[in-house]
């Protein structure tokens, strides 16, 4: 295992990039600690697979360095980086038995057969493959084939990092939860550094201790699943994580006060940063549906849709042209009802050009620490 450091990393597929728009990866600086479980999360085309290929050595970055435990590996090919990679589609040998598939990475490196057997049996037990060890891989279901692929990545004890590139894409939805849980269990048992690439927030948030959220080649936030949900640093994070995502509402800022549809909205705390930016940049209020309540006072709205999703009810409302979702667990209004919406002040934030521009009051910070 290894600590992985990305230093001043940028990459463009163009020979002579001249602006930020020419870069598939904008400048990235981050550390992944030895033994951690990390996820790269973002929509298709955001740069996460490009970043994974740079870490693995399949791509050489246009700028910057990749360090494994402080050693510069930027120009090393994949076979010299001591990594394991599990791909979207299972990479296995159909004509081999499950046992021989798991043993192959060790035998290929000349390991003693007693060591091979010990590791294969241990990984097979972890992945619930023990009863299939004598079967040919060709006849197995897609989820079991992907288990083998995962096992081939985990069977070696000397790898610097195990990387998973959308490994559950081809798995039936009803089996995904089982493999997600198994992968989390595996990390806790083998303690290898793991990086998981996905566009699925559920996969990322259930697997990773730290999630790197990417948009258009840029890292917009790094944090724990709780941090990403509780305090999105960017409107993209708030919108992308959560179901439904954070309400993002265009507003105006006048004398330090956020005005939405003619109403002053209480924010979590003072507006930070350049005051000029609040008057020249794009200003928006961000509030998650979980913190929008329906009451007798507040912003007047009209209910346009009511969705009972089992655990709670999502009430879609409109104030002017703005759609606002609220989540309630009690009795819900009906479509067409006139209601009032209240925003929890400690969860209502101002965003300028996408980035959070308020900070919690000291009293709120103290409360969060106590919680």
Topology of this structure?
Elements: E1 4-11, E2 25-32, E3 37-41, H1 48-56, E4 63-68, E5 71-72, E6 83-86, H2 98-107, H3 113-126, H4 142-154, E7 161-165, H5 173-190, E8 194-198, H6 201-207, E9 210-215, E10 218-223, H7 225-230, H8 235-240, E11 247-250, E12 252-254, E13 257-260, E14 263-265, H9 275-280, E15 283-287, E16 292-295, E17 299-308, E18 313-319, E19 322-328, E20 338-343, E21 349-352, E22 355-356, H10 362-370
Parallel strand pairs: 3-8, 3-9, 6-7, 7-8
Antiparallel strand pairs: 1-2, 1-4, 4-5, 9-10, 11-15, 12-13, 13-14, 15-21, 16-20, 17-18, 17-20, 18-19, 21-22
Secondary structure tally, helices: 10
Work out the strand percent.
25-35%
Roughly what percent helix?
25-40%
What's the level 1 CATH class of the largest domain? Alpha Beta
Overview of this structure, please?
This protein is an alpha+beta fold. It has two domains: 4-230, Rossmann fold (3-Layer(aba) Sandwich); 243-370, Nucleic acid-binding proteins (OB fold (Dihydrolipoamide Acetyltransferase, E2P), Beta Barrel), CATH 2.40.50. The chain is 26% helix and 31% strand. It has ten helices and 22 strands. The protein has helices at residues 48-56, 98-107, 113-126, 142-154, 173-190, 201-207, 225-230, 235-240, 275-280, 362-370; strands at 4-11, 25-32, 37-41, 63-68, 71-72, 83-86, 161-165, 194-198, 210-215, 218-223, 247-250, 252-254, 257-260, 263-265, 283-287, 292-295, 299-308, 313-319, 322-328, 338-343, 349-352, 355-356. The strands form five sheets. A six-stranded mixed beta sheet has the order 6-7-8-3-9-10, sandwiched between helices. A five-stranded antiparallel beta sheet has the order 16-20-17-18-19, with no helix packed on it. It has a four-stranded antiparallel beta sheet with strand order 2-1-4-5, with helices on one face. Helix 5 links the parallel strand 7 (161-165) and strand 8. The longest helix is centred in the middle third of the chain and has 18 residues, at 173-190. The protein is globular and about 75 Å long. The mean pLDDT is 89.
């Amino acid at each position: 295992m290894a600590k992985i450091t990305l230093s001043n990393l940028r990459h463009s597929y163009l020979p002579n990039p001249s602006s930020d728009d020419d870069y598939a990866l904008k400048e990235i600086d981050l550390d992944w600690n030895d033994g951690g479980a990390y996820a790269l999360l973002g929509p298709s085309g955001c740069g996460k697979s490009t970043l994974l290929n740079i870490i693995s050595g399949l791509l050489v970055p246009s700028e910057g360095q990749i360090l494994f435990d402080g050693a510069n590996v930027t120009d090393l090919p994949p076979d010299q980086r001591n990594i394991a990679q599990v791909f979207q589609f299972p990479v296995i040998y159909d004509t081999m038995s499950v046992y021989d598939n798991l043993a192959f990475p060790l035998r290929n490196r000349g390991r003693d057969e007693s060591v091979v057997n010990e590791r294969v049996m241990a990984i097979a037990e972890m992945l619930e493959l023990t009863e299939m060890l004598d079967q040919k891989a060709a006849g197995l279901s897609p989820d079991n084939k992907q288990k083998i692929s995962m096992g081939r990545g985990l069977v070696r004890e000397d790898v610097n990092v195990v990387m998973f590139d959308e490994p559950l894409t081809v798995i039936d939805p009803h089996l995904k939860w089982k493999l997600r849980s198994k992968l989390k269990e595996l990390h806790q048992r083998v303690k290898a550094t793991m990086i998981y690439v996905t566009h699925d927030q559920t996969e990322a948030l259930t697997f990773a201790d730290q999630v790197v959220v990417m948009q258009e080649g840029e890292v917009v936030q790094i944090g724990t699943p709780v941090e990403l949900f509780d305090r999105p640093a960017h409107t993209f994070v708030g919108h992308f994580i959560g179901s439904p995502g954070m309400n993002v509402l265009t507003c105006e800022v006048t004398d330090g006060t956020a005005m939405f549809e003619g109403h002053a909205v209480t924010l979590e705390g003072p507006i930070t940063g350049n005051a000029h930016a609040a008057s020249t940049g794009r200003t928006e209020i961000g509030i998650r549906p979980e913190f929008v309540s329906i009451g007798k006072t507040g912003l007047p709205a009209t209910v346009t849709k009511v969705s009972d999703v089992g655990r709670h009810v999502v009430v879609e409302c409109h104030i002017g042209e703005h759609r606002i979702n609220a989540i309630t667990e009690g009795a819900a209004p009906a479509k067409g009802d006139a209601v009032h919406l209240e925003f929890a002040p400690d969860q209502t934030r101002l965003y300028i050009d996408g980035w959070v521009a308020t900070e919690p009051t000291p009293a709120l910070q103290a409360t969060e620490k106590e919680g």
